[in-house]
Amino acid sequence: MPNLKDPTLLREECWLGRGWEGAQETLTVTDPADGRVIARVPKMGAAETSDAIAAAAEAFPDWAARPAKERSAILRRWFELMLEHADDLAALMTAEQGKPLAEARGEAVYAASFAEWFAEEAKRIYGETIPSPSRTSRLLVIRQPIGVTAAITPWNFPAAMITRKAAPALAAGCTMIVKPAEQTPLTALALARLAEMAGIPHGVFQVITGDAREIGGVLTESDVVRKLSFTGSTEVGRILMEQSAPTIKKLSLELGGNAPFIVFDDADLDAAVEGAVVSKYRNAGQTCVCANRLYVQAGVYDAFAAKLAERVGQMKVGRGDAPGVTIGPLIDADAMSKVEAHVADAVEKGAQVLLGGKRSQVGPVFYEPTILTGVTQAMRVAREETFGPVAPLFRFETEDEVIAMANDTEFGLAAYFYTENARRVWRVTEALEYGMVGHNTGLISNEVAPFGGVKQSGLGREGSRHGIEEYLELKYLCSAIG
Ligand code: ADP
To answer: Which of 133, 306, 419, 458 has its CA 20 to 30 A from that of 191?
Structure first.
């Protein structure tokens, strides 16, 4: 385990309504880089989940009734504590998730930004007055918190995927139960410890670790839980949506992506290479907004491939806590199998390996940063999210052709394109069937902009002024005065 400046951030108990609680059975948390056990967290199930729901329901009326300014001040404190403890949060993330320390620290700051932003938004949950169609009535709309909410979060951003949900929920006056990914519970529990230090009342924010299906089953079945926010695979999103149907739960789903990254002939190639590196290789390619398919126009294809290979060839694979490392381990052996299968399929169907294309000597879950050329739409890399450090380069001739290829997927999360032609910017942006588009950048996520996808990439938006709406209901008042 890493040495923490504040050792109280390493928790092996859940943060529930009554405080910290353990369980007889535990789940082991391992360092993906070497498989070593670093901690054990409680394996909780249905009974504890029901208790957490009851505690969240009990805490809700008081939390919702507090003036927004008061909730805002507490969230602001949470934000400040995350920044103060950014090094510890980073150390925990690198230990259980594997990402390079500098990236982990970046995530800690990014995670904190949601608490800051929604602490500010808490004070701006305005209502409306509507001019009445009659002389004898007055019409008003107020916004109220939806009630008890739940979040199920993934391992690739162990901190930010929690604060992006919990901060708007708490700002709105909701209470929230978080079930983090089994691979990365320590970051979630550290955030709970910081929530405790910030003075977030018992029951308002809880973190429960354990059996995903059992906990998810109880959370979705409950009529008390009025909203579920999920980030993860489309497959599990579908299951949770189905399970939420009987109680007509409000849902936010942030699911898989298959991001196209388009480089036109008129692009600034050096900028495009930098953007591709950031978008493709961050977190070893394990983000849902990672460039999954790189479409390069014929006129610059060879030049782009050469420049990208030169740049990517300088990346360093290794443990996330080793100096200078830019590519950490994959999360587990299954992730490795998928990456290997995608590369093997592409090569079998005619792609060439320009760089990498194999496991790294560093260890069994480390994959070399890879570039494939001569890739076609018939290969698995074109259809499925690889979730690894593999950049497949597709060649295209015309704008219409590349738009059709980019949109030929059931996903619609993020897309990127590089061009210096201003006329093309609007044309391409409007034609791409994606929730988020990056022009001349490979990095689009921040707390002030709406994050989310279309098609089977999900429902709803997180971050921005829209993110808080997911946790609010409108109530219309018709007051007869005649
Ligand atoms: P990934 O493939 O990135 O691990 P998953 O969708 O499997 O994505 O996991 C995302 C989150 O969903 C994790 O917290 C995981 O524990 C949880 N999860 C997985 N399966 C279920 C399920 N059947 N019910 C509830 N939660 C689930």
So the answer is: 458
Spatial contact of 202 and 154, defined as CB atoms under 8 Å apart: no
Per DSSP, the three-state class of 458 is strand
E strands present in 137-249: 137-145, 148-152, 175-179, 205-207, 225-231
Whether 1 has a pLDDT exceeding 80, the answer reads no
For residues 371 and 156, what is the distance between their CA atoms, to the nearest angstrom? 22
Strands 370-375 and 259-263 turn out to be unpaired
Token pair listed for 380? 């698995």
Token pair recorded at residue 375:
């890739």
How much is the average pLDDT of 317-330?
A: 97
Q: List, for residues 339-394, the tens digit of each pLDDT value.
A: 999 999 999 999 999 999 999 999 999 999 999 999 999 999 999 999 999 999 99
**Annotated catalytic, 254?**
yes
Q: Pocket residues for ligand 1 (CB within 6 Å)?
A: 152-154, 179, 181-182, 212-213, 216, 232-233, 236, 239
Q: How many CA atoms lie within 13 A of 439 on its CB side?
A: 14
Catalytic residue among 103, 116, 196, 254: 254
Residue 138 and residue 141: Cα distance in Å, rounded?
A: 10
CA-closest candidate to residue 305, choices 254, 363, 370: 370
Report how far residue 231's alpha carbon sits from residue 234's, in angstroms, rounded to the nearest whole number. Answer: 9
Contact 258, 283 (CB under 8 A): no
Write down the ipTM of this complex.
0.98
Helix ranges (DSSP H) in 85-184: 86-97, 101-121, 160-172
What's the 8 CA to ligand 1 centre distance in angstroms? 28
What does the block give as tokens for 235?
Answer: 């497959």
Residue 255 alpha carbon to ligand 1 centre in Å: 11
State the Cα–Cα distance between residues 139 and 256, nearest whole angstrom. Answer: 41
Query: Is the pTM for the entire model greater than 0.95?
Result: yes
Pairing, β 414-418 against β 259-263: parallel
Residues 6 or more apart from 57 whose CB is under 8 A from it?
A: 147, 148, 175, 224
